[in-house]
Amino acid sequence: MRLFERSVRVLCLLSFAGDPEKQREVAAITSEVAREGRVRQIRELGGLASLALHQTCRSASGDNSGLARSAASLAAPAAFYVVASSLGTTLDATSGVAWFGVVLLALAGVASACRNRPLTLTLALLATGPAVASAGPAITVALSIAIAASVASPPRRRQPKVPSLARVYLVLGLFVGLCVLAGLPLLSDGPVRVATIVIASTLIVFGLFDPRYALVAAVVFGCRFATFDLVGLAEALGSLGRDLTIDELVVRWLAMTAGLIASLLTARRSIARSWMI
Amino acid sequence: MGKRLREQSTFILAVLASGRSHGYAIISSVDELSDGRLKLTAGTLYGALERLEKAGLVERAGEESAGGPPRRYYEITKTGRQALAEEVAQLNEAVEQLRGVGLALP
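Output (structure tokens, whole complex):
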């Protein structure tokens, strides 16, 4: 089977998880239309990807009623990661990433407990126990965010072959945890900033079709904003006024402001679109 | 007033207003009706059809197979015709308002 057909099948499966007939119908029409050529194939894949985002948003949050709670459960680990990696005095970026893994595991545990999944809960507790014991007060804050988000998150409908949020957190957390245990070099401060920008930009693009991702991007930018070095920024703005030298801090602050505005506007547009037929 | 219709939904309803149709034919008809301006992908079409079905503006109208794979047909409902008429009336009203402020519209 060619890559195009395989991609179509996966996207149809994500879009209509509980309706095999619909999956076949949409896949057949897509293949029929895509005979026009390569450009059309790319357009069709783009259309199916946006449909998959729409449908997963709808299945996770209902008809907008559970949107905020669903977005909160996605934004909690992102918020913790950004805050943890921004607290440069007590945490360097590496420990921020490691803690992110710990929190993902904890979140998986809480989500599993909420949904009565004893196996993933046990795994998560075993993996997080020693780390939580030595982590200090920040982890308590992070866990509070995670627990609040998990409790607030709406119960997911069972869908075959679509991974549950708890499983996603668990796999991500185990990956980061194993990297730490194996002593593999994790992200340093520079790549963390680049990763934040790349991930947040991707979230904004996804947010065009699923408002939850735009809201997560807004949280990421908002947390960066909240933990920004304001004293340093004031000094940088002062030197900009004195001798017109543009400090890196000013550029970062402007980029964050632009990112925050873009993500909020995208979320607003996406939510407005989801109210139209 | 109910939910507003997106542009592609209006065109899909307009195509179905002239008779029941299946996915591939709807894509071709919308392309023709909009003079090639609106090129629906299968993803956009089925997303729109699902929203229209949920809102009760469109319903399934059987399956047929003429040599190839079976095709599912869709048809507009009475509510769908009303929604289309309302949407067209609103668009006309907007055009009249713009003419009223002196814009030279065709």
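Chain A is about 80% helix and 0% strand.
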